[in-house]
Design brief:
Blueprint (H helix, E strand, L loop, with lengths): L4 H11 L15 H19 L4 H4 L2 H13 L5 H12 L6 H10 L14 H6 L2 H8 L16 H6 L24 E6 L2 E8 L7 E9 L2 H7 L12 E4 L20 H4 L8 E3 L11 E3 L19 E5 L4 E4 L3 H9 L13 H9 L13
Parallel strand pairs: 3-4, 4-5, 5-6
Antiparallel strand pairs: 1-2, 2-6, 3-7, 7-8
Length: about 375
C-alpha cells in the first residue's frame, strides 16, 4: 500500500528491465495483476527459448536506472543491500557512494507514503514507473533492453501522463524534495559506511551521549523503564543486530522512542544500529553501520555516555572516543552479552561466510 521495501524493490525491478512494463504498482486485488502474471509466464518461456539470461539484461547502466528510480520514489533503505548483492553476482561494481551520488542529483517526485501522502494504488493510477522514468528521462539510460524486448526509451515514448495526477507523480520542476532522500554517512563509527533515509528524518545535525542496547532483547526489556538514563539529546544505539550478530540482520533498527520521552511529546531522536529498518518506518534512524559490532566494528566498543556526533551536511558519523582510548578498550574488552555461535548447519555456514552490509550481505563464496 505504501512505498515500503516490497513496493520499492518492484519499482527498481521494472526500472532495471526485469519486469514487464507497468507491473510494479498493480494493486493486489486488481485483475490487471492476473493478466500481468500470465504475460510474465509467457515472457519467461520466450526468454528461455531465446537463451536470454539475466546477465543480458542487467548491466551497470540498468542498475543505475534502478538507483535513480529508488531515489525518485523516496524508497526503502533495504533496497540498497539487494541492488549491491545483485550487481556483485554479475561482477558489476556498485558502492555505497553511488547511492549518494545518485541521490544528490535526483529529485523525489513520487508523492507516496511514507515520505509523501498518497498510496501505491494512486501511484499506479498516475502511470506508475513509466511516468516516473519519463519525467526523469535525462537521468535514465534509455537504450537498456527489458524483458519485453523493448528498450526503456521505447516504453517511455509510449507513456502519456494525465494532468489530474500531477500531484501524485510530480513534475520535475515541482518535486517533493529537490534531492533524493538517501545519504551515506562515514566516520569512525562506520568506516565502511552507514545509511540514513533523511527524507523522513527531522534531525539534520546532532551531538549527544550514547545509550547502548546490546541486543533486541536488551532493548525490549529496558526501553520503557522509567529509570532509563535518557533525555531527548541522547543517541540511542543498538548493536549486535547485523548479519552476523543477530544473526540475519533483522528490521530492528527502528528503535522506539522511550515511553518517558513519548509522554513529553518527543517525536524523533537520533538512533544508530547495524540492523535494517522497514521501508514503512520513519525518523532520524541511521542503519547498516559497517563493519557491524559482531564483526569487530566500532559500535562494539562504545560505552554509555560516549559523545556521538552526526552530521547530514558533512555525511559523517563519529564518536569522540580517542584512538588511544579505543585501543585500550579493544585490548581489555569484556562483552556484556553472549552472542549466538552456531556450531553446524546452514546457520553456521551463513555466519562464517556472510558479507557486511556495504557488500550486499551475500555469502562470500557466491
Amino acid at each position: 500500500m505504501v512505498m515500503g521495501s516490497a513496493s520499492t524493490i518492484s519499482v527498481c525491478a521494472e526500472a532495471m528491465g526485469i519486469m514487464l512494463p507497468n507491473g510494479a504498482s498493480i494493486p493486489a486485488p486488481n485483475n490487471e495483476r492476473l493478466n500481468h502474471c500470465v504475460e510474465s509466464g509467457k515472457t519467461i518461456v520466450n526468454l528461455v527459448e531465446k537463451n536470454t539470461k539475466l546477465s543480458d539484461i542487467v548491466t551497470e547502466k540498468s542498475i543505475q536506472n534502478a538507483l535513480t528510480a529508488l531515489t525518485a520514489v523516496g524508497g526503502s533503505t533495504n533496497t540498497i543491500i539487494h541492488l549491491i548483492a545483485i550487481a556483485r553476482r554479475l561482477n558489476i561494481k556498485v558502492e555505497l557512494s553511488d547511492f549518494d551520488k545518485t541521490s544528490s542529483k535526483t529529485p523525489i517526485i513520487a508523492n507516496v507514503r511514507p515520505v509523501g501522502k498518497y498510496q501505491m494504488e494512486d501511484f499506479h493510477k498516475a502511470g506508475g514507473v513509466s511516468v516516473l522514468l519519463k519525467e526523469l528521462e535525462d537521468l535514465i539510460h534509455k537504450d537498456e533492453i527489458t524483458v519485453s524486448g523493448e528498450t526503456i526509451g521505447d516504453l517511455i515514448i509510449k507513456t502519456n501522463r494525465k494532468k489530474e495526477y500531477d500531484d501524485i507523480i510530480r513534475r520535475r520542476n515541482k518535486p517533493l524534495f529537490k534531492h533524493g532522500g538517501l545519504a551515506i554517512l562515514d566516520g569512525n563509527l562506520a568506516p565502511k559506511g552507514s545509511i540514513i533515509k533523511h527524507a523522513s528524518a527531522s534531525i539534520r545535525e546532532h551531538k549527544g551521549p550514547a545509550l547502548i542496547f546490546d541486543s533486541v532483547k536488551d532493548m525490549t526489556e529496558r526501553i520503557d523503564d522509567v529509570n532509563l538514563n535518557v533525555t531527548e539529546n541522547t543517541v540511542l544505539v543498538l548493536r549486535n543486530t547485523g548479519p552476523i550478530g543477530a544473526p540475519g540482520m533483522p528490521e530492528a533498527g527502528y528503535i522506539p522512542i522511550p515511553k518517558k520521552l513519548l509522554e513529553k511529546r518527543v517525536t524523533d531522536m537520533v538512533r544508530i544500529s547495524d540492523a535494517r529498518m522497514s521501508g514503512t518506518a520513519f525518523g532520524t534512524v541511521i542503519l547498516h553501520a559497517a563493519p557491524e559490532s559482531a564483526a569487530g566494528g566500532p559500535l562494539k566498543y562504545l560505552k554509555d555516555g560516549d559523545i556521538i556526533e552526526y552530521s547530514l551536511s558533512k555525511r559523517s558519523l563519529n564518536s569522540e572516543v580517542s584512538e588511544e582510548e579505543l585501543k585500550n578498550r579493544m585490548e581489555n574488552y569484556v562483552s556484556r552479552v553472549e552472542l549466538e555461535k552456531p556450531s553446524r548447519g546452514y546457520q553456521k555456514m551463513y555466519v562464517d561466510n556472510v558479507l557486511q552490509a556495504d557488500e550486499g550481505c551475500d555469502l562470500k563464496f557466491l
